[in-house]
User: What shape does this take?
Amino acid sequence: MAALCGSLKKNIRTKMKESILPSITPESRKRQSDGITQRVIATDDFKKANTISIYLSTPTEVDTTKLLSEMFSQGKQVFVPTYNKNVMEMVKLESLSDYESLPLTKWNIKQPKISDGRPNALTSGGIDLFLVPGVLFSNKGGRLGHGMGFYDKYFKRHSETYPNKKTTRMAIAFKEQLVPEDELPLAEHDVILDFVVTEDEILSSK
Assistant: This one.
């Protein structure tokens, strides 16, 4: 069963990455990203959050730069992914100028270096709100990531480190990335997100 689930995930992931996501026009990406940004910042979870984890977007993902700007203007503490070999960490980003000065990885993604010694979320109080990327999402909070399990493993470490902390996990997604619950194969270790935010709606798993 696990092998079948893994095979289905691989096929869906390939189709999304090679045909569906590249077919979204730049105009649609911008419109949807702007709409998603406005929906996210209007939520109570965003307003109440002091510490927020957010990914630094690539051209095929929902653009997070305006969300970053809003977070810094509101005085939020911002944490972004970096990697120590095969382990993802969330480290602090200080400002928009800090973001703009980040080096690019070989995949052309802005990313802090793990060697920078930035404050780490797991040793500085944890995360109130995760804004989560992915390849595909269901209308009930299911998520198909890029296949490395980084976020699912991080969520487990975070909940073990801060077992009593109330944390919200919110996906932001293009409408093309959304499918009904029964069309997304999930394994036991896959974490269900609290919300999926698109340009048009906020879907809850609760």
User: Anything to note?
Assistant: The CA atoms of residues 54 and 131 lie 5 Å apart. The first helix runs from residue 2 to 20. The chain has one domain: 2-204. DSSP finds six helices and ten strands in the chain.
